[in-house]
Specification:
alpha+beta; 30% helix; Trs120_TRAPPC9; Trafficking protein particle complex subunit 11; Trs120_TRAPPC9_N; Ig_TRAPPC9_Trs120_1st
Length: 1260
């Protein structure tokens, strides 16, 4: 409703108070008030023979609140008394049913708009959920006894002026319960209350009869001691005592009583008789100098004159006569009328939802209203063209009334007397407004403005303290007028549609004026709302100084409130009839890029749907049994995250409290967070944060927005408000912020005997850490635990991801086997049927490999500094480690091959180790390698749709293994062995520690002692691998595909690895640390050239010098000119080809060991015989030739027990002497045949020894 402007008609209206008894149902009460407005005027027969009053119209004023500051003037002005009381009570069950239909219509409309259901019926469950959210809040049942008690209590409070009352009850059984039957109006519901208006009319008539009897009662005229009506405030302003026996006092009593009779005459529809009574009262009051009552009599006289002259009562009766009676309207029509008038009644229904679009009925109503306004405007324009005589025409029934000047004169006299009494300032103000309405009736607006400017200034002055700021704002009507003028500046209420159109500076100034007017009127909530609107919409247009100033003003306003202001609620200003809409302050802070985050790797489920048996294909496929879904899923009772980018646009720090997600769908528990954002500076980028929550039930969950407390206000924002308009309207909007929540799933946890590092935000899985020396082996365990109390895990697959190395692996299972099943790429171990709360042990061993032996292209690990404490126990506790990050500027390739063990920059004092143990700690530099135990476990759970589904989760145990070099391989050489099938592998072993080490090798347990940092050469006799020939490597390189070549070589490599690792074992021991291990030979096995020399070559050359077999690398001493007899035997295991013709010769060269290539010295020797000897390398029969005996195709056993393959031999002899002294090397060379087309041998298929001669000067 509009701001109430005092009018002359107020003196003619009988006040009836309407209150609810018990729980208040806003919908029912508003509809009840709307129906009461149709019976506010009734016509009664005129039994007074006065020609000026042919009709009597009684006006009722139905009010919901009574102002005690004005009702205390009821004796002075009768229209301020409350003569009637109307108590309304509704049974709780009936109240719920009465609002169900109206709420259902509104909710159905909103749901159809949201879901685009134009023709399809709504889902009953969705409609029920919406109705539950929008239903009115009831406090339970309210018995009829409570209604009666409350009704009687209200009557007692109004006992001073109450004439008659009625108790209107809905939904109660017929009963009086202490209330007179005539006062009870009982109905089943508001729709069935066709006699409600008649009951109200009877109440008005009952009051009318009482007031009429008071009007005609003139007995006080003949009393010697008539009653003396007075006001409590009058006693405070009276000076001295008054002689109550004097004639002047009696005249005062008669004047006041006549004035009251005149008030009753005006209330009973007799303005002409009221004017006469006011005139008589004025004479007595003027004679007795009763100025307050004289002022009231003057005002009553002027009002009576206006009622006669302008006859507004008759106009109101004519207007009401055109309104339909409620009894002729259907319930649907009543609800339509209620919806149209809901906002104007100043009453809200909790979280009431209003339709954002208008249906055809609303469009028709709006069109009719627009046509009516246009018609009224045309009538006013026509009336403005009328002459002054027509405008000044008299509307009284007799045509004889006071002139406007005479009426204004009486008002002015009343104001002059009112201003003498400070406690009557409110009455004085209302009298002034009524006086100005005289000019309005005659469209004399200039005079009206001058009159108001002259008299209203005193009330708005700061020195006038009788009125507070709220009253002053009502007087000048600044706030409602300014607020309603905002659309003219292009300012709209809805922030979503508030695209800035027009001059921004003017709009900001207009909004600031509205804010200041609301602040002056003590509308603090409205002032906060307007100030937040300015900051939200116009912040980019404000400079920093203005923005900071507004923030300070907002902070002061917030501190003045007792509770937190909520921007999400409507603000209803009943005094001004204004309802401020909610505001979404999305700018502070600015949130963007909402994304639903997948669960962490150990929690994220993967749905595996079991395929129908009938759909399986007859050809095997690994995809026929199950189909996998990689969609994002959340799990019940599992913490979830939504990532969002946030930035503070303000030039000051911004604190955000209780920032939490808003959702709809299944149950969700949001976790509020607190943020402190730094001031905005140019170039500042948004920061990504995670908003947390936990679903509590399965189903569909939609992220709708967020809530927070910022700048001292509670803010609720929708994601739709943040997104651009085209994105909001897209069909994929809802799916982008909707996630499916699965039912609770079993969770697999891992417990390890290894020490585990604390988790971080980047690494949600705790990393198991261990430090080992290269070559050491340790056994550990992992316990797999099903933490669920009721759900079993169907199967668990274990996959180990570790660096691919040559030789023994880094990690190897000891109580389980890794198998490759059909359709799998990698082998894995399996655990079946892990019951609830069951735990199983998995044992494994960790071997300290050589990091340089990793076969893939990845880095061999970062360098790590560790401290080793000497111990005298074999326990792992002796290996105490403290890890530090190490930054090396060298390239990765160099860091992987070169390790520094003497870093002087290591500061031991910075480590968390006691000072007394510093002298015991030995620093080492190791390599950090990583591996993973990956457990994929599957559980079968029946879904909400009753279909059995498989859900797979992954649990991971990362391992960080720091390998410290102990005794490692630095160089290697391969020399001929005792026979063609054996080789001496000469390994240079380096002691990288600062302690003495012991080496044990060969089958006879030979032992060598090593000093710290010493390199020791260890010869190990190793048999050649009979399963692989040197030609196999050549054949592997003949494939066109590089990948195929690599695969074939890897197969050959694996075959050789196991053979060589079994025979090439060198054990080390560090007695001071009590550590033992095996020298890792992975770096040796990584060399293909090394492996090629440990296979049985196709052609082998054996040398005999001067009749002695040459089997070692020792130098042979000869003199200059001494004849050397060299006999060579060429042995072949060539199969499947024709014989190969070639030439056998000798090559003489010198190796100066200066890092430069060798120097050929053929001139330093003289041959005594042929330089080249032709040879024929014969081929052996293939294994498929059945004519050969079985022994010829099998391997032969040598004298030392090693298996040797069958072979063909050819011999050749050379004689030569040396001409110069020095160290000379002789190597046999098998050359190609000169015959074209002959098969040839590759260089790596021939094994030839190199003989070293130490030539000395000949002694005579």
């Amino acid at each position: 409703m509009e701001v109430h402007v005092p009018t002359a008609e107020d003196h003619c209206r009988i006040s009836i108070l309407v209150r609810t008894i018990g729980p208040r149902t806003a919908t029912t009460f508003n509809r009840l008030i709307e129906r009461l407005s149709r019976v506010e005027a009734i016509q009664v027969p005129n039994n007074v023979s006065v020609s000026d009053n042919p009709k009597r119209v009684i006006l009722a004023n139905f009010i919901t609140q009574a102002n005690p500051e004005l009702t205390k003037f009821g004796d002075l002005q009768a229209h301020r008394k409350i003569f009637g009381f109307l108590g309304v009570s509704q049974n709780a069950f009936s109240a719920a049913n009465s609002i169900q239909s109206s709420l259902r219509a509104s909710v159905e409309s909103d749901l159809r708009n949201e879901e685009n259901y134009n023709s399809k019926p709504l889902d009953p469950s969705i409609l029920h959920s919406a109705l539950v959210r929008t239903k009115s809040t009831n406090d339970g049942t309210y018995s009829l006894d409570n209604v009666c008690e409350t009704y009687n209590r209200y009557k007692q409070e109004l006992q001073g002026g109450l004439v008659d009352s009625r108790c209107v009850i809905f939904g109660f059984n017929e009963a009086t319960c202490g209330i007179e039957s005539r006062e009870v109006l009982s109905f089943n519901s508001l729709e069935d209350s066709e006699e409600f208006e008649n009951g109200v009319r009877e109440l008005i008539r009952s009051i009318y009869f009482i007031l009429e009897s008071r009007r005609i009662d003139r007995s006080f005229e003949k009393m010697e001691d008539p009653p003396f009506p007075t006001l409590p405030e009058e006693e405070k302003t009276r000076i001295g005592t008054e002689n109550r026996q004097s004639k002047s006092f009696k005249r005062k009593c008669i004047g006041r009583l006549r004035k009251q009779v005149a008030d009753y005459a005006l209330l009973t529809g007799l303005p002409s008789l009221a004017l006469d009574s006011y005139t008589n009262a004025i004479e007595n009051l003027k004679a007795s100098a009763d100025l307050l009552w004289l002022a009231a009599a003057y005002e009553g006289s002027a009002v009576s004159a206006m009622a006669i002259k302008y006859n507004e009562t008759a106009d109101r009766w004519k207007k009401q006569a055109t309104i339909h009676r409620v009894s002729t309207m259907t319930p649907e029509q009543m609800r339509d009328l209620q919806e149209k008038t809901q906002h104007n009644l100043g009453v809200t229904i909790g979280h009431q939802r209003y339709r954002s679009d208008e249906d055809q009925r609303a469009v028709a109503t709006a069109a009719a209203a627009a046509a009516q306004l246009i018609e009224q405007d045309l009538q006013q324009r026509k009336q403005g063209k009328k002459t002054w005589a027509l405008l000044n025409s008299d509307k009284s029934p007799t045509g004889r009334s006071m002139t406007p000047e005479e009426i204004l004169e009486k008002f002015i006299l009343a104001l002059e007397h009112y201003e003498r009494f400070s406690f009557a300032s409110t009455i004085e103000y209302e009298c002034m407004v009524r006086a100005s309405s005289v000019y309005r009736h005659h469209r004399r607006y200039i005079e009206a403005e001058a009159f108001l400017r002259e008299h209203v200034g005193k009330y708005l002055d700061d020195s006038f303290t009788l009125f507070d700021n709220t009253m002053k704002a009502h007087i000048c009507m600044v706030y409602p007028i300014l607020y309603r003028s905002l659309p003219g500046y292009g300012v709209v209420d809805a922030t979503r549609e508030s695209s800035i159109n027009g001059p921004v500076a003017v709009q900001v100034k207009a909004m600031h004026e509205v804010y200041m007017s609301a602040l002056r009127a003590n509308f603090y909530d409205a002032a906060i709302r307007h100030l937040c609107y300015i900051l939200q919409v116009y912040f980019p247009e404000l400079d920093n100084v203005a923005a900071v100033k507004m923030l300070d003003e907002l902070s002061k306003l917030i501190q003045s409130l007792t509770k937190t202001h909520s921007l999400a609620q409507h603000i209803s200003l009943d005094q001004s009839g204004i309802i401020l809409p909610p505001l979404q302050m999305t700018r502070f802070p600015t949130l963007s890029d909402f994304k639903i985050v997948r669960l962490s790797s150990q929690l994220a489920p993967r749905v595996i749907s079991i395929a129908d048996e009938s759909q399986k294909i007859f050809i095997y496929s690994p995809f026929q049994n199950e189909t996998e879904s990689n969609d994002t899923y959340w799990v019940t009772n599992c913490g979830c995250e939504v990532s969002v980018k946030v930035i503070n646009p303000l030039p000051v720090d911004l604190t955000v409290k209780n920032l939490a997600l808003l959702t709809e769908g299944c149950s969700f528990e949001a976790v509020p967070v607190r943020l402190t954002l730094t001031p905005y500076t140019p170039g500042t980028q948004p920061t990504e944060i995670k908003l947390l929550g936990m679903p509590r039930a399965p189903g569909k969950l939609t992220i709708t927005g967020y809530s927070c407390e910022v700048l001292g206000v509670r803010n609720v924002c929708s994601i739709k408000e943040i997104l651009p308009k085209p994105v909001e309207d897209s069909k994929n909007f809802k799916s982008s912020y909707t996630v499916e929540v699965l039912q609770e799933l079993p969770l697999l946890t891992l417990e390890s005997s290894l020490q585990r590092a604390p988790t971080t935000e980047e690494n949600a899985e705790a990393v198991a850490e261990i430090t080992v020396f290269s070559g050491q082996t340790f056994t550990h365990s992992i316990f797999v635990v099903n933490t669920s109390e009721s759900m079993a895990i169907k199967s668990v697959k274990l996959d180990i991801r570790q660096p691919t190395v040559f030789g023994p692996p880094l990690i190897e299972l000891t109580n389980m086997s890794m198998k490759k099943e059909e359709g799998d790429i990698k082998p894995f171990a399996r655990i079946e049927n892990l019951k609830p709360k069951e735990r199983r042990e998995i044992r494994f061993q960790i071997f300290g490999i050589d990091p340089s032996s990793i076969s893939d292209d990845k880095s061999n690990g970062e360098e790590q500094k560790v401290l080793i404490k000497p111990a005298f126990t074999t326990s792992m506790d002796a290996l105490n480690e403290t890890t530090m990050s190490f930054n090396d500027q060298t390239p990765p390739s160099q860091r992987n091959s070169v390790v520094s063990f003497t870093d002087d920059t290591l500061n031991i004092s910075n480590l968390s180790i006691s000072t007394q143990d510093h002298h015991d700690l030995i620093p080492y530099t190791g390599r950090l390698l990583t591996a993973d135990f990956i457990f994929r476990y599957v559980a079968g759970i029946e879904g909400l749709d009753g279909v059995q589904k498989l859900y797979e989760r992954t649990s991971r145990l990362p391992l960080a293994i720091c390998i410290v070099p102990a005794v490692t391989v630095s160089k290697w050489h391969v020399l001929p062995g005792d026979s063609a099938s054996t080789r001496y592998v000469v390994i240079d072993v380096a002691n990288s520690t600062d302690l003495d080490a012991e080496l044990t090798y060969s089958t006879d347990k030979r032992m060598i002692g090593m000093q710290p940092k010493e390199i020791c050469r260890v010869p190990v006799l190793c048999p050649c691998c009979p399963d692989v020939s040197s030609r196999s490597f050549r054949e592997a390189t003949q494939y066109d595909s590089h990948v195929r070549q690599k695969q074939e070589i890897d197969i050959l490599r694996r075959s050789l690895d196991s053979h060589i690792a079994k025979h090439l074992q060198i054990r080390w021991a560090i007695p001071q640390l009590n550590y033992v291990g095996i020298v890792p030979i992975g770096s040796v096995l990584a060399e293909v050239e090394f492996l090629k020399q440990l296979v049985v070559p196709t052609v082998s050359v054996y040398v005999t010098v001067n009749g002695k077999v040459h089997t070692n690398d020792d130098d042979i001493s000869v003199k200059i000119g001494e004849l050397v007899e060299l006999e060579m035997t060429v042995s072949s295991i060539l199969k499947g080809t024709k014989p190969i013709n070639g030439e056998l010769s000798l090559k003489c060269f010198q190796d100066l060991a200066n890092g430069k290539p060798t120097i050929d010295r053929p001139e330093n020797m003289v041959f005594c015989g042929p330089l080249k000897v032709p040879i024929v390398i014969e081929s052996m029969p293939s294994d498929s030739d059945s004519s050969l005996p079985s022994t010829s195709a099998g391997n032969q056993s040598s004298e030392n027990g090693h298996l040797e393959p069958p072979k063909k031999e050819t011999a050749a002899q050379f004689s030569f002497l040396f001409l110069y002294e020095g160290t000379h090397k002789i190597r046999p060379v098998i050359g190609k045949s000169a015959i074209a087309g002959e098969p040839s041998l590759a260089e790596d298929e021939i094994f030839v020894p190199t003989i070293t001669f130490n030539v000395i000067t000949k002694v005579s």
